[in-house]
């Protein structure tokens, strides 16, 4: 899997992931995300989830997704491009979780 963005410091991301894992174990996800994300950022993640769900299910064209979710074509394209960088097994898992099918 190739990374399509540059990170300031990979250790910072790893620290975040480890803290997230700990929040999952201790059932503190809601508090965790309230600490790290603004209300707008949480809304953006919700939108991104719906974009990915539609892209994986292949039930609508990108234009139809854009119109249904009232977002920009660039936002849909960024989501589509990110899917191209991920391995098929992970995408199958994500599709199963989001759409109930592999």
From TrEMBL:
GO cellular component: cytoplasm
Keyword list, A-Z: Cytoplasm, DNA-binding, Repressor, Transcription, Transcription regulation
Annotated GO MF terms: DNA-binding transcription factor activity; sequence-specific DNA binding
Principal subcellular localization: cytoplasm
DNA-binding region: 62-85
Family: Belongs to the TrpR family.
Origin: domain of life: Bacteria
Name of the protein in question: Trp operon repressor homolog
Subunit structure: Homodimer.
Signal peptide limits: none
Any GO BP annotation: negative regulation of DNA-templated transcription
Gene it is expressed from: trpR
HAMAP family: Trp_repressor
Protein's cellular compartments: Cytoplasm
Function: This protein is an aporepressor. When complexed with L-tryptophan it binds the operator region of the trp operon and prevents the initiation of transcription.
